[in-house]
Design goal:
By secondary structure, the protein is mostly helical. 59% of the residues lie in helices and 4% in strands. The protein contains 18 helices and four strands. The protein has a four-stranded mixed β-sheet with strand order 1-2-4-3, with helices on both faces.
Length: 383
């Protein structure tokens, strides 16, 4: 039960425990800095609401609502009652006054989404309902309610519309390029918004292990006895730090068409946030309120976003991010490191790589030029 005794009736597997509630919480409290700065800027735009109301006539929102109403099961006190309890409890914890309609649609692919311009709706697939246990599902429901509180549903709907439009105008070279540039930028923002919603899911479920197990199951299926959260997080560590500059480029290319970050990365990011002072302050009742949203500075939000990105680059173990960090710090022999990092694209490391390293050391440089994995970059056949 949540802090006011809101019970989850008829589900013994749901632990009977008190959960903290966050009256008047602003979505700024849990949003990723890049997500928060974009939302603050959009909300400050003059005529923002008018533009989106005009767009709503062009978007298939009514069609989507009719589709789910006619071909899915609406969650209520009579249908999927355990999901209905979770939804109402999530809205109660995050103080979302209007509970969005929720539908379960037949689809073996585990998925959930929050869409809509005027009134967001939450949709979960049968694959997801069958995959997750009660506490893991609670985090997902909180995730979607977080999207609704942030207003992400508006931008996701526009992203879906623009993606569809890009396909229709693919025969127009410049028109397609312009739309795809916007879509690419929206996808980058939306990947950050997913990290924000993961945080909202943790605030609702208040069980980090369940949140991470849910992400792990979405990556590996319903074989929990064969998986381990710690080992899953080690994958994220290996993904970030492993390889060379070629792998860094491939990571970028792999993630560009996606609207969601990779599951292992999301789990690692959520664990990292749960260990921060910001999360603890929220749990202690110290957080941004909606009543203060109107006074939020766009400039300050962008500064926080820039600082967040800079900190991510500084702390990242990714070879490309380390190179960028070294460049900003004035590290030497960046040209040599770039050549070694991309050597695999030419079929292997340069033949003179070992000799070059000896020359560098003779010139006073440190062995391995910083001891940050360059030796691995010089290994032939590292493709």
């Amino acid at each position: 039960m949540s802090d006011d005794g809101h019970e989850q009736n008829g589900h013994e597997s749901v632990p009977s425990r008190r959960r903290r509630r966050f009256p008047g919480i602003s979505s700024r409290a849990y949003e990723h800095p890049a997500d928060r700065s974009a939302l603050v800027a959009l909300r400050k735009l003059s005529g923002f609401d008018t533009v989106f109301k005009a767009l709503s006539g062009l978007l298939p929102e009514r069609s989507l609502r009719l589709l789910f109403l006619s071909d899915s099961v609406r969650v209520s006190e009579a249908q999927f009652t355990h999901l209905n309890d979770m939804l109402r409890d999530a809205c109660h914890i995050l103080d979302l006054e209007k509970v969005p309609p929720m539908y379960v649609t037949q689809d073996p692919q585990p998925n959930a989404m929050c869409i809509g311009l005027d009134e967001p709706i939450v949709v979960v697939t049968t694959g997801l309902v069958e995959l997750l246990n009660e506490e893991e599902m609670r985090a997902v429901v909180g995730h979607e309610v977080g999207h609704a509180l942030s207003g992400h549903a508006v931008y996701r709907t526009i992203l879906l519309f623009l993606t569809s439009l890009a396909v229709r105008v693919a025969w127009i070279p410049l028109g397609n390029l312009a739309i795809m540039a916007i879509v690419t930028a929206l996808r980058e923002w939306f990947r950050k918004s997913e990290l924000s919603a993961d945080r909202a899911g943790l605030l609702v479920g208040q069980d980090l292990q369940s949140s991470m197990r849910g992400l792990m199951k979405m990556a590996g299926g319903n074989h929990l006895h064969e998986m381990n959260v710690d080992a899953f997080l080690e994958q994220a560590e290996e993904y970030e730090a492993g390889g060379d500059l070629r792998d860094s480029v491939l990571k970028i290319l792999n993630v560009l068409p996606r609207t969601h970050p990779f599951a292992a990365v999301r789990a690692a990011e959520l664990k990292k946030w749960a260990a921060t002072r910001d999360y603890q302050r929220i749990m202690d009742g110290h957080y941004a309120r909606r009543t203060e949203d109107g006074d939020t500075s766009v400039t300050d939000s962008f500064r926080q976003s820039a600082a967040g990105y800079a900190n991510d680059v500084k702390q990242s173990k990714d070879p490309l991010m380390k190179l960028v960090s070294d460049l900003a710090g004035g590290a030497g022999d960046l040209g040599g490191r770039v050549r070694r990092g991309f050597a695999g694209f030419a079929g292997g490391a340069p033949k003179d790589a070992p000799r070059e390293s000896r020359e560098e050391r003779a010139g006073g440089g440190r062995p391995g030029d910083g001891g940050d994995g360059d030796g691995a970059d010089e290994t032939p056949g590292d493709a």
